[in-house]
Design goal:
Structural class of chain B: alpha+beta
Distance between the termini of chain B: 40 Å
Mean pLDDT of chain A: 84
Shape of chain B: globular
Radius of gyration of chain A: 23 Å
Helix content of chain B: 10-25%
Strand content of chain B: 15-25%
Mean pLDDT of chain B: 89
Largest sheet of chain B: 6 strands, mixed
Strand order of the largest sheet of chain B: 13-17-12-16-14-15
Strand content of chain A: under 5%
Number of strands of chain A: 0
Number of helices of chain A: 15
Largest sheet of chain A: none
Number of strands of chain B: 19
Largest interface: A-B, 35 and 42 residues
Oligomer: heterodimer
Chain lengths: ~325, ~575
């Protein structure tokens, strides 16, 4: 729900940009035209829309299925209690009318329900953390490029620092600390803390590259005559940055944002896989992969890896292809050959 | 005492229903069920009755021994391999499926107690020698014991014997703390112990590695683990830490002085960094017919267990019940109301928990952490369902009008997935009572340290294996829910922090009582039963271990205490 809302403001913000573009068509208008001409772009766009709908409608779909993502079914009629203890019996291992994708080994929870709710978690975290990165990267990059001098030097060094930082190690050590520090607060109930800390961490460490690119763009934009003009009739720096500069780098920002979403989906899955991300019982694809691996269930049947793995691949691939398409559409000069 | 080795505490992979429960469950599954006439938990010894010497046994392990130093070993894996290179005054002799028997080893008998039970005397056998041919003396035994008091050096020194001795102020031989007067050596052959309190099971405490002789001149403190001087049938040939350990025959060992160890193979080669999944598959496929493993639960992976039913594998599978029971400890300082604890215990779906441990094949659902093979056993009085079904109505009734906590924490060792899943099961069960359970991962390396600290969660799992005296219900000097040694608070091994003025006081008094093992242990069992009525902990599963061995391995039995293949009697075909 919030997923789409967070994206809308950005697309609506664009119409303020057109007056500065020399062509008759708006930036987005041109881009949309190009996207419509590319079959890959259309298909990936369709898949992304389908995934978002799937996530949004998860409660409805799961209700239709008649299951929920949390109820365990460990009875001897569902899980094998002798030969391969904990493995679902054949009737429950694979898709059936009752359990559309079978049940998990060990706990017997419905896999379809967990995939569907896991999609919500994945998309929510990926979109929110992208928003954090984009806001930080755009504002700091624009400030560095626009002001230059000492401001530029300080921000650029911070960017260098963040780019050189061993993100994965930091995230691996920081996430459990954040999660345990907040555990005893009212915020510590449910899965708020794991989700919020993933959003903050992924967001906070994803902005540096974008900031550097934005800074480069702004360096050339600030020399433009319309900026001089704005300055000459006394517009404040704030006004110039937000009204004149940032709208002109939105194309670049949009491209990076669409590329960042799949990266963040993968990162969330990887962190959950490594056990520092979303915590049980909150469903997450990465954690489903982890469960299949940690219990060695994949040795009994790769099905438990295939389901969450496929969901992850389809999602990341669709977002990546869409990102490519958006880049090509907004910047036809970029390499595609 | 808690066993901290990954072998027992960290990794009981098992569960099971009692005979009847098991049969009915399998009948529902439509799977081959053990018939009523055959106890599914009967011990199985692989190819017994073998007596040919020679050959090499390959021992596959996923990690190195925590230590080889008998003075710094609280680990059952070390105790098992230790049978090969050190001897103790008495020895815990394993018989699969039963508590070990305490027999004489370096000493001529299992000890003579004085009338008041406070003095025990041992005499060394003749002809005992170290690997370098020098004689083993009573002074060396005393020095070995003295070392284990130096807890600043040896943090994992076994303390069961020490806490029974009248030596509370002694700090070990390194800090110039004087003489260990609680152990006297009037001559080269005699060792006399002075106890604080009478203990009819003292011979069992003497079987721990404390009494392994260490020649003072050869003591290299923490480096001693690299080459402990052998007093047993084998000695260390080479030891590449984390990779390989090789044991060869000790030429100075005289079989005439040692009737407990058959010492059949010429050599033992320990490979110390083989992944568990690899060990499991190699053993099942008989890739190396001379291989065994000391890993917990025979290194078996859930996905491989279906192959255990194949006859060719079943014949090569040593199995038996261990003395270890996995329990869920309540923190009785945070969940203070016994009725609330009782309700939580009733709400638990222990059958679902059993599935997390690997199902019926790997252990037995139990309502007590004691068992009927122990001296002094008295039937337990807990009212949990023996088939593990939750009793929600009874639980809800108990909670009526109670101050029910809205949220509880369950701490688990983060290295092991099944313990997290166990928490997920509890989360479901407690949600039925309107209680939100938070799962708190604890780094595996610090798990027991955290449980002993202020960070102790409301609920935590632990493996309870008893101690040296595992053949009796008291099981150790510092029993599971017993008081501290001075009687004023809960004991070191008491993870639940259970302390009840009346009951704990009686336990403290019982420590001071002289009597036969049978009498005293019966009283212990009765006190435990009374304590258990307030549910300081919930018994879950008694471990049943299966360990597959290579086809040329003989006399392979799973030790009740060691939890893995007993190395002292194993043999290999050439």
């Amino acid at each position: 729900m919030t997923d789409t809302q967070t994206l809308t403001p950005k697309t609506e913000a664009l119409p303020t940009a057109p007056p500065k573009i020399a062509t008759g068509r708006s930036l987005l208008g041109t881009a949309w035209l190009r996207i419509r001409r590319s079959p890959i772009a259309l298909v990936s766009f369709g898949v992304v829309v389908a995934i978002v709908l799937f996530a949004l409608l998860a409660p409805v779909l799961v209700a239709i299925e008649g299951q929920d993502p949390f109820t365990t079914n460990t009875g001897p009629d569902v899980l094998d209690n002798f030969n391969t203890p904990g493995l679902p019996l054949p009737a429950y291992m694979y898709p059936s009318v009752e359990h559309w994708l079978g049940v998990e080994p060990g706990l017997g929870r419905d896999i379809f329900a967990r995939i569907a709710y896991g999609a919500q978690v994945s998309l929510l975290i990926a979109l929110l953390s992208t928003v954090v990165s984009v806001v930080l990267g755009t504002v700091l990059g624009a400030a560095a490029g626009y002001f230059g001098g000492k401001v530029d030097m300080v921000i650029s060094r911070i960017i260098d620092l963040f780019l050189a930082f061993p993100h994965l190690l930091l995230v691996l050590s920081l996430t459990p600390i954040l999660q345990s520090r907040l555990r005893d607060t009212p915020l510590g109930q449910g899965s708020f803390v794991p989700i919020a800390s993933l959003v903050l961490i992924l967001g906070f460490f994803g902005w540096a590259y974008l900031a550097r690119v934005v800074r480069g763009q702004v360096l050339s934009i600030r020399e433009q005559e319309y900026i001089e003009a704005a300055k000459s009739y006394g517009a404040s720096h704030r006004t110039i940055i937000f009204r004149q500069v940032i709208p002109n780098v939105l194309g670049v920002v949009l491209v990076y944002a669409t590329m960042m979403i799949p990266a963040n989906i993968s990162a969330e899955a990887a962190l959950s896989f490594l056990g520092v991300g979303v915590k049980d019982p909150t469903p997450s694809w990465g954690q489903m992969l982890n469960a299949a691996q940690a219990g060695n269930w994949y040795l009994s049947d790769p099905w438990f890896l295939i389901v969450p793995g496929t969901a992850l691949i389809i999602t990341v691939l669709a977002f990546n292809l869409l990102g490519d398409a958006v880049r090509d559409a907004l910047d036809p000069k970029a390499s595609r050959s | 005492m808690r066993h901290r080795s990954p072998l027992l505490a960290a990794a009981t992979v098992a569960i099971a229903l009692v005979v009847t429960g098991c049969t009915s469950v399998n009948a529902q599954n439509g799977q081959s069920a053990p018939t009523g006439s055959k106890d599914p938990y009967a011990a199985h010894i692989v190819q017994p009755g073998f007596d040919e010497a020679g050959g090499n046994v390959n021992v596959l392990m996923s990690s190195d021994f925590m230590t080889l130093d008998p003075g710094n070993s609280n680990y059952v894996q070390t105790a098992n391999v230790g049978q090969l290179y050190y001897r103790t005054l008495t020895m815990a002799k394993e018989t699969a499926g039963e508590p070990p028997t305490i027999v004489a080893d370096l000493a001529t008998d299992t000890g003579t107690a004085s009338e008041d039970g406070l003095t025990w005397t041992y005499t060394l056998k003749d002809g005992l020698k170290y690997e370098d041919g020098t004689p083993i003396t009573a002074a060396d035994v005393k020095y070995g014991i003295a070392r284990t008091f130096a807890r600043d050096v040896f943090t994992q020194a076994p303390q069961e014997l020490n806490s029974a001795l009248d030596a509370d102020d002694y700090k070990g031989p390194y800090s110039g703390g004087g003489d260990l007067t609680a152990v006297e050596t009037p001559d080269d052959k005699t060792v006399v112990f002075h106890l604080k309190q009478p203990n009819p099971d003292f011979a069992a405490l003497v079987s721990r590695s404390n009494t392994a002789p260490v020649p003072q001149a050869k003591d290299t403190k923490l480096d001693y683990t690299n080459h402990p001087i052998s007093s047993g049938p084998y000695m260390i040939d080479s030891y590449d830490r984390g990779r390989e350990l090789k044991l060869v025959r000790n030429p100075s060992w005289d079989a005439a002085t040692d009737e407990n160890r058959t010492a059949l193979p010429d050599t033992f080669t320990f490979s110390l960094s083989t992944a568990q999944a690899t060990i499991s598959q190699q053993l099942i496929s008989d890739a190396d017919p001379t291989a065994i493993t000391l890993d917990s639960n025979g290194a078996l992976q859930a996905s491989d267990t279906s192959r255990l039913t194949e006859t060719s594998v079943a014949d090569r599978t040593a199995s038996g019940l261990l003395g270890c029971t996995d329990v869920l400890n309540f923190n009785t300082e945070t969940i203070t109301d016994p009725d609330v604890r009782h309700a939580l215990a009733l709400a638990m779906d222990r059958a679902a928990i059993q599935v997390q441990y690997g199902g019926a094949r790997f252990g037995k659902l139990t309502n007590s952490y004691l068992n009927d093979a122990q001296v002094g056993y008295v039937a337990e009085t807990t009212d949990l369902d023996i088939d593990g079904a939750p009793q929600l109505d009874a639980a809800k009734k108990l909670l009526e009008g109670k101050d029910v906590p809205a949220s509880l924490t369950y701490g688990y060792s983060n290295a092991i997935d099944r313990y997290k899943n166990l928490g997920t099961v509890l989360q479901q069960n407690f949600a039925e009572l309107g209680i939100d359970l938070q799962l708190v991962p604890i780094p595996a390396a610090n798990y027991y340290t955290v449980l002993a600290s202020d960070e102790m969660p409301d609920i935590a799992r632990a493996g309870w294996c008893g101690g040296a005296a595992s053949g009796s219900t008291r099981t150790t000097v510092d029993p599971n829910i017993g008081p501290s040694l001075d009687g004023t608070t809960y004991g070191f091994s008491n993870i639940s922090r259970f302390y009840d003025d009346a009951l704990s006081g009686e336990m403290y008094e019982l420590r001071n009582t002289n009597g036969t093992s049978e009498e005293l242990n019966t009283q212990w069992a009765e006190l435990y039963n009374q304590a258990m009525e307030s549910y300081p902990l919930v018994p879950l599963i008694r471990t049943f271990t299966n360990s597959v061995v290579g086809s040329k391995i003989h006399n392979a039995q799973v030790g009740y205490f060691f939890g893995s293949i007993d190395l002292s009697t194993i043999g290999v075909e050439q």
